[in-house]
Amino acid sequence: MRLQNRVAVITGAASGIGRASADLFAAEGANVLAVDLPGQGLNEAHKDRDNIATLEQNVADKGAPGRIIEEVTGRFGRLDIVFNNAGVSRNELAELQSEANWDLTLDVNLKAQFLLIQAAIPHLKVAPAGRIINTASVMARMTDYGLIAYCASKAGVAGMTRTLALELGKYGITANYIEPGAIYTGLTRKNFEDEKIAGIWARKAALRRLGQPIDIARGALFLASDDAGFVSGHGLVVDGGLTLRT
């Protein structure tokens, strides 16, 4: 029970990494507010967990951070862990990149993370062991065709998190980010349901398989727990060895 009596917010929690993390955090003793867009099956996903509450909320909406913090503290009386996991990806070459998709990607993947953290900081300061965990990507350091907005947003997450670690360390708050590799989630399912594409990406990894949401959830659990009490400003690569070769 590594998170006994802790309270966590997890965004993007209707499916994939967020759902697996909410379930794992709850199994380890945490009270969790699971957040995701309306119409994504959030309530159904967590209906069997007494210590998981749900909030249907677009994290990029104006006023969303305040509503999320009000909901979690109102239900559970405190906040210890923020896991910013919600994200989007749009594939467009730089020459054809639309301003609308650029704004959407940066708004959800970076700006929304920052604003939720900013709203949470007063509560994390008084927590016994405040934790900030942000989902970045191996694309924070790497790149691929059509991912100019996505890579920019994830590199921004990495830089933002390192700065948070520096500024908030004096309050005992740790801030870290996870760099998933090729993970089979709702965001990637459309591509990875193609056996040829899935096989290519599986072979790229040293472990010769795609990652699963639980693989990332276990990394997030480590960063949220006392085991990572002296880890801050760190990018935890969970990619099965995908990025070992250039």
Give the SSE map:
Elements lengths: L6 E5 L4 H12 L3 E6 L5 H4 L6 E5 L7 H13 L4 E4 L14 H27 L5 E5 L12 H21 L5 E7 L8 H4 L2 H10 L8 H12 L10 E4 L8
Parallel strand pairs: 1-2, 1-4, 2-3, 4-5, 5-6, 6-7
Helix pairs in contact: 1-8, 3-4, 4-5
Any descriptors?
Rossmann fold; 8 helices; 246 residues; alpha/beta
Summarize the structure.
The chain is of the alpha/beta class and 246 residues long.
Oligomeric state, counting identical vs distinct chains: single chain
Name the poorly predicted regions: none
The proportion of strand residues reads 5-15%
At the fold tier of CATH, the topology name is Rossmann fold
The termini sit apart by 39 Å
- The helicity comes to 40-55%
Sketch the major β-sheet.
Answer: 7 strands, parallel
Strand order of the largest sheet: 3-2-1-4-5-6-7
Total individual domains: 1
CATH class: Alpha Beta
SSE order, as H and E? EHEHEHEHEHEHHHE
Radius of gyration from the alpha-carbon trace, in angstroms: 17 Å
